[in-house]
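Suppose you are handed only these lines of text.
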Amino acid sequence: MKAIPRAHPLWLAYILHRLSGLGLALFLPAHFYVLSLALTDTARLDAFLRLTDYPLVKLAEFGLVFLLAVHFFGGLRLMALEWLPWSAAQKTWAAASLAGAFLISTTFLLRAI
Amino acid sequence: MSEFHLYMAQRLSALVMAPFVLVHIGVMIYAIQGGLSAAEILGRTQGSVFWFLFYGMFVVAVSIHAAIGLRTILSEWAGLRGSALNITALAIGAILFAMGAQAVYAVTATGAA
Amino acid sequence: MSTKGPQVTVTVQRGGPEGPGRKQQFQVPAYGSQTVLDVVSWIQQNADPTLTYRFACRVGMCGSCAMMVNGVPRWTCRTHVSKVLQDGAMELAPLRSLPVIKDLAADMDPFFDKWVSAEALHHPTASRDDPIAPIDPDAPERVTASAGIECINCAVCYAACDTVANNPDYLGPAALQRAWTLYNDSRDGAHGAILDAVTGTGGCQSCHSMGSCTAYCPNGLDPLSAIAGLKRAATRRFFGKGKG
Amino acid sequence: MFTLRNIDRHDTDILILGTGGAGLFGALHALQSAPPGTRVSIAVKGLIGKCGCTRMVQGGYNVALGGGDTVERHFMDTIQGGKWLPNQDMAWRLCEQAVVRIRELENELGCFFDRNPDGTLHQKAFAGQTADRTVHKGDLTGIEIINRLMETVLSRPVEKLQEHRAIGLIPTKDGSALSGVLMIDMRTGRFRFVRAKTVLMATGGGPTMYKYHTPSGDKTMDGLAMALRAGLPLRDMEMVQFHPTGLLAGDHTRMTGTVLEEGLRGAGGQLINHAGQRFMFDYDAKGERATRDVVSRGIYAEMRKNNNPEQEGVFISMAHLGPENVRKKFSGMVKRCADSGFDLAAGKVEVVPTAHYFMGGVVVDVDTRTDLEGLYVAGEDAGGAHGSNRLGGNGVANSTVYGGIAGDVMGRDIRRMGALREPDETVLEAELARACHPLTRKPDFVQPLRAQLQTVMWEDVGVMRNEAGLQRGLSGIAQVSDALMDLGVAPDNLAFNLTWHDWLNLRSLCDISEVIAKAALARDNSRGAHFREDHPEPGALEDSYFTVARQTGTVEVTRAPVQFTIVRPGETILPAHEPETLVAAQ
Ligand SMILES: Cc1cc2nc3c(=O)[nH]c(=O)nc-3n(C[C@H](O)[C@H](O)[C@H](O)COP(=O)(O)OP(=O)(O)OC[C@H]3O[C@@H](n4cnc5c(N)ncnc54)[C@H](O)[C@@H]3O)c2cc1C
Ligand code: HEM
Ligand code: SF4
Ligand code: F3S
Ligand code: FES
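From them, the structure of the protein bound to FE2/S2 (inorganic) cluster can be written out as follows.
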């Protein structure tokens, strides 16, 4: 708390949403590139996909799905907050979306192993 | 486009993406069992009008969404303003769309395998 | 300066419009009931007569004494020293996101300029020649409007908000909250103009709902939800619904 | 240093000093009533709308709005509360125009005032009122009034001279009219002389020369000190209202002296002396619910009897009403006390009478005009409307009503005023030298002297007075005053130099303290806020007089008979058979 003097739960939700959005946006071109290999070089696509067998890559993948889930639930939370009649339980919402994100990504991770 | 229109476009594109993300995550959890392969992916998607429209809409939405999102971040965290900001955001949107379109084409166009 | 009795170590950011200057350290005698404003006053009255700060009411009504205390914006006249002391020390700086006039006194003009450009002032539909119309105190609109009414324009929320810090156009939580009050006030005659103003450049759409405004408002007000209300109203209008 | 040649010179048409209820209403109405193109400037010691006491109004705004209450009744309460000393025409105008002003506040400025379930304005009764009359917004009425005024004025084309401190009224060479005002741009530390055709002085008095005081820190009697030097007559200067329950938390905290609200006593709060006993019933049958002046004297008397250095004041205790209940009903007050480390709901809080409001002020007519052409005075700076005592709720009504009137009248008067007037440069130079005086002396800390004056005033010119004490007070004031002239402020950085302003504050306070003591000597009876132990009787009401102080070399105080232009003592303007009071007994 000392390093970020003004931190509080909703602020953390904000920074998480921003960083996850940023991460996704940076990942997206790579993702598109790999998929477009399907057209030109299926073998390399396969090579890429095989990489997913390595634990480290699995972890990175987990990270990505986590980002997407966090951003997804965070985004839904924001739109609910902005557009649906206001409910005061903001912090609960933020926590719940985080929890949801963890749940999904962990399921993913567990099934992938 | 006014800032408020950008806001609306970002929210609406997020809403368009919401079902996609759910399905996408679901498919991934399902597909990842036993590892991914190019053939698996392509076998599912190639020649399918449904998947073309599905991924096509996603690419349009995400280009808009991420470009606006990055525009915000560039302005708030990198101090970009005015036309420099708008041109950069447009360029990001265009690049994302081009790469995304290529990927969709690669994954859903018939006969490429 | 006497050095007897318990002391508080206070680091003060000095400076002027040309930018932050040196940080200065003072040893201030500690007392049982002592606010951060008292500490600052003690320094000016007993140690360094050139130290500049601002206050007026000293009871949390005028909103002119706010500054950064250990990086957090606070009203200093109502902040007990014991609440902010970290290992017997505290660090003071002028309010974030506003130009500095001198030392701990910020220039609040941008805050109020934005207040006015958010159309955050009453647009009359009646005059002093008209009787006072009855208003149901429990009507939902009045209740919503009243929620933001006790703002003392201290700019604590303004200084707490990262969006304000990063986006010079952003109108900020206090001005938008006031606009939301007016938008819900049945006596106000320019709901459309208010929505126009708060959806222009730097309007409500710039807010990322980070909620630092609500977290730090010393009066327990909730600009976060007021701004959400504006977004909702603006979105309704975008889809051709609602008033204004 | 500064000479007449290197000060800034600036022109405007209408100049407003101060941004309390009086200043802001003055500006607003001037904008509405002056011919198009008239320049309006606002100079204020702090930030626009963020200083002064109007913002600190808690209880509310007195206005007769029917339901049995009438302007006549409000007027009679005001005259009786003022112990027959008010200028009756001013008091009448106050009561009558308050009705218009409250509609303006509600309809044109958009103020939120609390409502009854049926939608009408909620009104309550302060002590001394015979009807439920006080309109309010919770207990933060002033914030609501000033914020609405402030945002409206900020949106208008006015010139903002913020953190500009007025230091001298500069007349024309022949002395017949005002040329302009000398001020210090506090932010840069430079002098600026602003000429104007009309000037509204609304700097809000402020009896902060007492050890315990409630007003905001920016108020230090600057306006009255300027008026005194300009030779204007000041009336009722002995009339300092003390609020009985100011927080007592030590010399080292600015919280000391701030108000614990009236409502606490109204709700049943008990005052406990050093012996642990309730005492107010020894002084008045109404106990703690007696009027402010009575309770203040009761507490002061108890304090004198006590010689326990550990406990200076008395305690207010609410716990017997149930801490939860107190916490709910007085949440703001409980929180404020908690912020300074006291538990109002369950514990007891030490209190002391605290100087709250200044009834005295510049002699004006009902249109706020003064003896000096071009100078108008409204709000707490103006004397006359309250006589010897101001009713709770009449303060903010007074400043908003008369501020608005001043704006209207200035807007009208300016049409017949030709060019701006040339200043008397010798007066300008003298005022400049006065403000620069400390810059030529050996620097030292100002605060100890201020504390010394505050102690003198509290002990000898305070809640209870007598001839010997007042004489002692006068020499105490003179001591501080002389010492101040030997005390300097380092001249090397004058930009936003608070210590220089502390010096100037103390200068104004010394000057007006002397007037208060002299006026108090001149009144050898006891009325309202002024209590002479050596003359405890009020004197014959028929022969009521008010004091007028004037500086002609030295300060001279004379007496002038009160003109009973509307009602004579013993009479009433209420219709026959009107009940004495419409307020249900508590
Ligand atoms: C704590 C408290 C509670 C109160 N509660 C009530 C209540 O419930 N009901 C009620 O009716 N009254 C109440 N009063 C009294 C009421 O606040 C005042 O009577 C009234 O507001 C005075 O208004 P004003 O415009 O004359 O002065 P203020 O509002 O005090 O404004 C004075 C202005 O002049 C400025 N100024 C001072 N010196 C200079 C200078 N040299 N140059 C330039 N500007 C200067 C100040 O900065 C300020 O802006 C209360 C007062 C206090 C202190
Ligand atoms: C892969 C897809 C996505 C990418 C690359 C992406 C990217 C971004 C970026 C970069 C931002 C800017 C962040 C900020 O301003 O702090 C953003 C904001 C946002 N995103 Fe996404 N996003 C994606 C998917 C989604 C989804 C699926 C949703 C919701 C269902 C969503 C909802 C939002 C919302 C509401 C914002 C606005 C946040 C704000 O203004 O504070 N996004 N996104
Ligand atoms: S909303 Fe709260 S923090 Fe912001 S200006 Fe108003 S009172 Fe201060
Ligand atoms: S802190 Fe700022 S981003 Fe919005 S919710 Fe409050 S205004
Ligand atoms: S001094 Fe007025 S709010 Fe702190």
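What can we learn from it? Residues 3-109 of chain B form a domain with the 3 helical TM bundles of succinate and fumarate reductases fold (CATH 1.20.1300.10). DSSP finds four helices and no strands in chain B.
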